[in-house]
Amino acid sequence: MAYFHDVSILRPCITGWHIRVKVLRMITVCINPRNALRLVLVDDKGFKIDCWINSEYAKHYAEFLKEDRWFSFTAFRVLENSDRVRLTNHHFRMSVFGTTVVLPADPPSTEPRDSFTQFSSIIDGTVDESVLIDLIGVLSDVGELVNVGTNPSDLTGFRLSFRIRGPCGNAIEGLVSGRSAMEFRKHYDLCVSKPLVCIMRLWKVDRYFDGPKNVRIVNQGLISKVLPYPDVPEAAEFCTMS
Predict the structure, then answer these.
(1) Contact predicate 131/86, CB 8 Å
(2) Which of 52, 105, 112, 224 would staple 219 via disulfide (CB 3.0–4.6 Å)?
(3) Which is nearest to 26 in space by CA: 13, 11, 36?
(4) Contact assessment for residue 95 and residue 77, using Cβ atoms and an 8 Å cutoff
(5) Distance between CA atoms of 132 and 24, rounded to whole angstroms?
(6) Which residues make Cβ contacts (< 8 Å) with residue 9, sequence separation at least 6?
(7) What are the Replication protein A 70 kDa DNA-binding subunit B/D first OB fold domain coordinates in residue numbering (predicted)?
(8) pTM as predicted
(9) Please, what are the domains in the chain?
(10) In whole angstroms, what is the distance from residue 79 CA to residue 11 CA?
(11) What's the rounded Cα separation, in Å, for the pair 238 and 126?
(12) Neighbours of 31 (CB within 10 A)
């Protein structure tokens, strides 16, 4: 039986790491002249780490890796994560290079549970706002899709506001922009007969001006994602909400 290291113990000063992780998110990053890849990986304990694949290897891994699939990674670099906004709460990130070995892996006997941020920690300011968060709740008060840009055909100008309610009924404002706003509205329009329970994956907490209630969640480019009607235990709490 293969032994895998926990993602939580990865450090730059040690080599020879061997991990088994699920690809939680995979994003193409536009860097001239060729694109790179950005991954969010999670192990069977629920610990996450950001992974960077530069343009030299991005095309291969974009075809090989799939979201929600398990893989083993060996012989990768572990680097300091100095990003102002981190994709995960891990203080380090991974980097795939030429000698890295990535193989499909059998999933663990028990899938990791999602770790959802409490709405109260966002409202009272105790959440780490330098790290993207996952929320689960019910969407409401979804506004109209508008383009605030000067060029009507420029997708970056799209904006859409909404609210998301937590299990205790407390609500947080949200704003989604760019191409993601169009996808967001599409999900909402398809749900006309029942509440839209969803996971908000990798969103940013934004205090848009001073004050305890002036807080919202915003998408971090295309990294942020909406997963409607997720098959997770926490979703059952919202089945009676309208």
Answers:
(1) yes
(2) 224
(3) 36
(4) yes
(5) 13
(6) none
(7) 4-103
(8) 0.89
(9) 7-104 (2.40.50.140), 119-240 (2.40.50.140)
(10) 8
(11) 25
(12) 11
Placement of tokens 């990865």 in the chain: 10
CA distance 170 to 129: 19
Range scoring the smallest mean pLDDT among 65-74, 126-135, 169-178, 204-213? 204-213
Exposed e or buried b per residue across 99-135, where buried means at least 16 C-beta atoms within 10 angstroms of its C-beta: ebebeebeeeeeebebebbbbeebbeeebeeebbbbb
Quickly state the pLDDT bin for 1 (edges 50, 70, 90).
low
d(CA 88, CA 49): 6
Q: b vs e for 159-184, b when ≥16 Cβ sit within 10 Å of the residue's Cβ?
A: bbbbbbbbeeeebbbbbbbbebbebb
Q: How far apart are CA 9 and CA 20, in angstroms?
A: 13
CA dihedral for 217, 159, 41, 10, sign (positive or negative): negative
Query: Could you give the count of Cα atoms lying within 13 Å of 1 in the half-sphere of its Cβ?
Result: 2
Structure tokens at 45: 């304990």
So what's the pLDDT on residue 242?
47
**Contact between 132 and 115 (Cβ < 8 Å):** no
